[in-house]
Amino acid sequence: MAYTRQQAVRTAAFLRKKVAKPPTVGLITGTGLGAAARLGDPLTVLPFSEIPGFPASTAPGQTGRVVFGELSGTAFLALKGRFHLYEGHPPAAVAFPVRVMQELDIGTLIVVNAAGGLNPGFFPQEIMILADHINLTGKNPLTGPNEAAWGVRFPDMSQAYDRSLMRAVESAAQTLNIPLRKGVYAGLPGPSLETPAEVRFLRTIGADAVGFSTVLEALAAVHAGMRLLGLSLITNVHDPDHPSPLTAEQVIATAKAAAPRLAALIRETLVREKAHGSL
Ligand code: HPA
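Above: inputs. Below: predicted complex with hypoxanthine.
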């Protein structure tokens, strides 16, 4: 059976053999943000297609590779590209890389995405810390019998995103002079973009940014007991009173332009976490 614990254990065993030092930090990047995975020296790079049990990635702007690397003594595993519901993947496939990371004993996960701004105070190319999320996909990777070895039946979501990691990002951003936002990410299934009425609705329910990823991975990570950090790269800002067309090419181009800054922020955050003994 695909995406079971047995498969995650097998995939983790395959990956473990590829590196001398087991990773303690996981990173998942998305649309146009593969460069954000350039944290340190890449030691081993594997296309998704060469990893047993991995789904096939079809999303545009995503290369689909696992990168092992090391950054100031911290070994990490980064996914360049991810799996989305809109590709037709079931929720368990979307969350599968998180389960593999769990089986590798990775305790800290950073999820990044490209997102549309809903908060009228936001600007393109800004980075937003996910303070929280709203799962509007109608799906959940925890549906079905609970895998007790992975986590509890009813995981607490009162603090899904780790506060100490948020603080580390905030101080890293200050050092690097990178303006930072903090807000709520609304996860939709996509792939069609938001109508002006939907933008108004999302604002009303308290969302600051919107995208088609992250929430299902976050649910698996919380279930797994990981320390979780979420970062959105705001590629465009919706104005429902003056709607303007948006294309995937625009989103990818903006994400690509800002990815090195996001990589610098993640790098500085991990260096701090390591220095504080949190990794
Ligand atoms: N909507 C959904 N996903 C996105 C957007 C958007 O406006 N921008 C980047 N990813």
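The helical segments are 5-16, 91-103, 163-176, 196-204, 215-223, 248-275.
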